[in-house]
Write the structure tokens for this entry.
Amino acid sequence: MVHAQVFGLVADMAPMTKFFDKKLEEELGTGAALQIAGMAAELGARIETYNALQKANGMPTLDEEWEEAEDYVRQMVARGEARREDYPDLFEDEIPDAEGE
């Protein structure tokens, strides 16, 4: 059983290489890093499938939905309904750094 699991991991490693993180390997061990890389690769494949289905049905992809959400937040900020500081990831280049003040 263990050999089958190991050989299964080796066979599935090709798509995982872009998700494998050496820092995680150092902190958690090789087995855990491989499991995380495998989950990340599976998630990536599922997202690609979802996006393909969305496109085939004339619906927006996740990236397109995210862009719409960002535009909506930017409009809220422009109207004074929200603050840039509430969305640091969206406005990270526009918010003064606390250390730089």
Notes: Helices lie at 2-11, 13-16, 22-28, 30-56, 62-78. The chain has two domains: 1-59, 60-101. Residues 60-101 form one domain. The CA atoms of residues 25 and 33 lie 5 Å apart.
